[in-house]
Amino acid sequence: MSQVLRALGTAVAGCMIIATTACTTHTTASDANVTTTATQQQAAGGGSTTPHTANPFDSLYPADFRLQPLGKVTAAAAQPPAKATGLTDGITDATHHTLVFRATAGADTAPHSTRIRHEYSRRQAFNADSSHYLAQNNRGEWYLYDAVTFENLGRIPQLTGDAEPLWHPHDPNILWHTARNGGTSWMSLDVSTGAEQKLLDLSELSPWPQATAYWTGGEGSASADGGILTLMATSYDSQAQRVTVHGVLTVDVKQQKLVGSLAAASFPTPHAVPDHVSTAPSGKYAVVSWLAEHGGTVAYSTDFKETQQLTQSSEHSDLALGPAQEDFFVYADYQAGAITARNITSGESFSIRSLYPAPGEAYAVHISGQAFGRPGWVLISTYAATRDYGAAAAPDNSQAEYGRIWLAELQANGQQLTVANTMVDHTKVPETEAYFAEPQASISRDGSRIIFASNYGGAEINSYIIGLPSSVYSR
Predict the structure, then answer these.
(1) Long-range contacts: 253-256, Cβ < 8 Å, 24+?
(2) What is the distance between the alpha carbons of residues 370 and 158, in angstroms, rounded to a whole number?
């Protein structure tokens, strides 16, 4: 379950939201008076197809630009850059020559935010055509940004705390979400108008009427086409401060119907609350992740009649599409000592990179498989490197993997290409903010943008965006 969920406060309602994707006018949208302007079928995915948008970074790099293989480098020191105001306003990563833009700033909000950044590596920050992105501040407020001008377009008052916002797979204006920490309904919000309507009423579909929340646990996604959504059904006893799980279900979003369900009594450890749930990109599998003592991570067919054990624990991971559109589970496999990719259908797996690059040394990792438009690639970001068997921190430049963001090809002995240094200085991060200074890099659907968190050598914690040309995916 996302640590962001536990740490964020309650947002305050009543601010402005942008009215057009062209970023020229504003309208007010409040929780109380939004109107419905689209059919439920359109909200669920029956409307427009993904608009074709040229990659703007193709013209900002040499035509023959390529990323270099992951290797040991010396990261050059850098001053925190000013907030970017356009695509020609980036800085160049001194080592890897990629364009980096400061994408958020505390001064973007009133009052000033002490932190404002994207949500998580497993969550898609960018909309369907990569024209906008989401960020959340230390007060739990959500903001919409323009991905070309980096302008904060205003607060989204319909989102509070961990409302689990999921971008529509095709329509760049539509955002799906639920209530803070889950509710009985999911909503469809048009960020260009503020109009909102009900997407799913789980109280009508669920076999557990006593459930009060249907959510992923803060780390899940729908299938790549938005057709299937996996949710866990829970209720919360505020007096006992205890979450009860009733089961896991899969929903056909377009058809508004239940696909399958698994009662909590049938879990590997009956009634154990999952850490999180998600859906394989193909929509064929519901993936449920429990702690090791409760069953580990299991892939179920969406009708829950077939199961496959993916790993014996619940580690940092994501689901991704392989080069032939296969479903892959990519995770930190501490039993094997490597970042491992597992084909969910065939069960075959291979190692991507060792988690222990030298005797007594290790690092932590986040994985993003969100580039569904670039099948065959995952994004990896690292942090918390240690030496002397965990007794001391290891400098970011002491091993190729430390303090890095890189792309990994999903095939045995595939390419591993360094994108940028994370530039996180953990010595200048308060202990209470250490989690939010983890890069937790996430990649856009088309692979043109990577968003990561950093204090960039000692500044406030913000999100930074790396722009990549299409040429980096050439084989």
Answers:
(1) 253/44, 253/45, 253/199, 253/200, 253/222, 253/226, 253/227, 253/228, 253/229, 254/41, 254/44, 254/45, 254/46, 254/226, 254/227, 256/40, 256/44, 256/200, 256/205
(2) 24
Buried residues in 341-357 as b, exposed as e (16+ CB within 10 A): bbbbbeeebeebbebeb
pTM, two decimal places = 0.90
Cα separation of 318 and 400, whole Å? 22
Residue 298 is assigned to a structural domain of this protein? yes
Backbone phi and psi for residue 29, each to the nearest 5 degrees, phi listed first: -135, 120
What is the span of the domain harbouring residue 270? 162-314
| pLDDT 10s digits, 269-304 | 999 999 999 999 999 999 999 999 999 999 999 999
CATH code of 204's domain = 2.120.10.30
- What is the CA angle 210-213-215, rounded to 5? 135
In this prediction, residue 78 carries a pLDDT of 75
Among candidate residues 417, 333, 421, the one with its CA nearest the CA of residue 376: 417
Tokens 């009060």 -> residue: 212
The pLDDT-based confidence of 52 (bands split at 50, 70, 90) is low
Q: Does residue 201 contact residue 214 with C-beta atoms inside 8 Å?
A: no
Residue 370 lies in a domain: no
Banded model confidence at residue 382, pLDDT cuts 50, 70, 90: very high
- Residue 217 covered by a domain: yes
Q: Determine phi and psi for 417, rounding to 5 degrees.
A: -120, 125
Q: Which long-range contacts (CB under 8 A, 24 or more apart) does 35-43 make?
A: 35/195, 36/195, 36/196, 36/197, 37/190, 37/193, 37/195, 37/197, 38/188, 38/190, 38/195, 38/197, 40/188, 40/197, 40/198, 40/199, 40/256, 41/254, 42/171, 43/174, 43/188, 43/197, 43/199
Total of domains in the chain: 1
| 102 exposure class (CB count in 10 Å sphere: 0-12, 13-18, 19+) | buried
59: in domain:
no
